[in-house]
Amino acid sequence: MTDVVIEKTLTEAFLTLNEFSGIKYINKDAAGKLLNVLLPNVLFKEPDDKRYFALNFLPNEPDPAGMGVNAENRWDGIFQIDVMVPLNAGAAETEAKYNWISQLFSRGKSFGDVMIRRTYRAAHGAELTFYRTVIRVEFMATLPK
Q1: Structural domain of residue 123, as residue ranges?
Q2: CATH number for the domain including 37?
Q3: Cβ proximity of 10 and 140 under 8 Å
Q4: N or C, fewer C-beta in 10 Å, the chain?
Q5: What is the maximal distance between C-alpha atoms in the chain?
Q6: What are the residues facing 67 on neighbouring strands?
Q7: How far apart are CA 91 and CA 66, in angstroms?
Q8: Side-chain half-sphere exposure of 4, counting CA atoms within 13 A
Q9: Residue 51: pLDDT above 90?
């Protein structure tokens, strides 16, 4: 297995944010297409309200978890969630989203073979057309090769 499994697992976990929080943060159209989540290499149109999430996956190289032909691989890295809101929207909205994402991806929580090491706000600040909060979810996983 490769880190593709980890990326899929963490993305699927993120997409449960509405059910987990009880708040409709993630929007979909009638066909189930994501309207406010930017996924890697997927066509995306920024919503008019400038409220959306951008998901990025930053894995490290795998390390052998043991010796021998059948030894598993140990992966670690970062699943990054950028939270975008309009400029001058205030801090309460991004703080609430950060708090819910931190609870969803809390330290020690596992999603299949993927365990969360820590979740934290790495940066935040104004950009040209929106305010960005960068949330990093550090993970580790031991997978069959």
Answers
A1: 3-143
A2: 3.30.2000.20
A3: no
A4: C
A5: 56
A6: none
A7: 46
A8: 3
A9: yes
Q: Can you tell me whether residue 25 is helix, strand or coil?
A: coil
Six token digits for residue 118: 């820590």
Q: Which among 13, 141, 6, 2 is positioned nearest to 76, based on CA atoms? A: 141
Question: What is the tens place of the pLDDT at every residue in 64-118?
Answer: 778 888 888 899 999 999 999 999 998 899 999 999 999 999 999 999 999 999 9
- Provide the pLDDT confidence category of residue 39 given band limits of 50, 70 and 90: very high
Q: How many CB atoms lie within 10 A of CB 55?
A: 19
- Beta bridge partners of residue 58, listed in sequence order: 78
Average per-residue pLDDT for the chain: 94
Domain count, the chain: 1
Q: Which two tokens stand for residue 110?
A: 């596992």
Which residues is 51 bridged to in the sheet? Answer: none
pLDDT of res. 62: 86
Q: Please write down the HEC assignment for all residues of 28-65.
A: ECCCCCECCEECCCCCCCCCCCCCEEEEEEEECCCEEC
CA angle 95, 141, 1 (to 5 degrees): 125
Closest listed residue to residue 79, CA positions, set 41, 100, 51, 53: 53
